[in-house]
Amino acid sequence: SNHLVILSSSAKVFMSHNIPYPFRQNTDFLYFSGFKEPGSAIVLHTRAGKKLLDFVSAVFIPKSDSYVERWEGPKTDIDGAIDLLGVDSAHYMDDLETFLHSYATQSNEFSLWYDYTAEHFSPVKEIVQNFLAGHSKIRCESPRYLIQRLRLIKSPPEVKLMRKTCRTASEALLEVMKFSHAPVLESHLHAKMEYECRIRGADYLAFPPVVA
């Protein structure tokens, strides 16, 4: 049978009107795409009537916003997304629902894989819900379990990166231990840990430090 997988990026979440929380990408989306920008989606699908391994990849990204880019810098547009990500095609997010309807027309039966339970602020969730409302016979299942099983097997570059992150964390912890003395506060230790990791090349901490 035919299959279509939708992997959604994380969405930008705001503390207040125009102040965002620090952005962290959906790790499953990052694993498949390497793309670090919010509000996007990767679609992997089989070709109708072809073998399972004959699949096509497409990325869906938000349209550029000159006001946002003035503050945050330039974003990837569809012209550069194909070369950057190595996908077969690039589209704007506004076209995702039309893309799904078109695929449903070409493929009489297919399984839709989308983890809609994990998305709280993603525009993809509403698009998928609207699509399924018009295609009640299409079964939707979460690919999370299968993706996690796939991610258990690490490639040599992943092993190299894991070793680097362990070394970074170890060196940072040693510096925090040296820094840990009265009258240093717990908030200072938190800040010290993040600082030492970031100056060693980390983008962010894997989780908030537990300082007690």
Automatic annotation (TrEMBL):
Provide the alphabetized UniProt keywords.
Answer: Aminopeptidase, Hydrolase, Metal-binding, Protease
An example molecular function term from Gene Ontology annotations: metalloaminopeptidase activity
Transmembrane annotation, as ranges: none
Q: Name one Pfam family in it.
A: AMP_N
From the UniProt record, give one GO term of the biological process aspect.
proteolysis
Which InterPro entries does this one have?
Aminopep_P_N, Creatin/AminoP/Spt16_N, Creatinase/aminopeptidase-like, X-Pro_dipept-like
Against SUPFAM superfamilies, the record matches this protein to: Creatinase/aminopeptidase, Creatinase/prolidase N-terminal domain
Task: Show the GO cellular component annotation of the record.
Answer: mitochondrion
What family does the database annotate? Belongs to the peptidase M24B family.
Q: Can you say what this protein is called?
A: Putative Xaa-Pro aminopeptidase 3
Q: Give the species.
A: Idiosoma jarrah
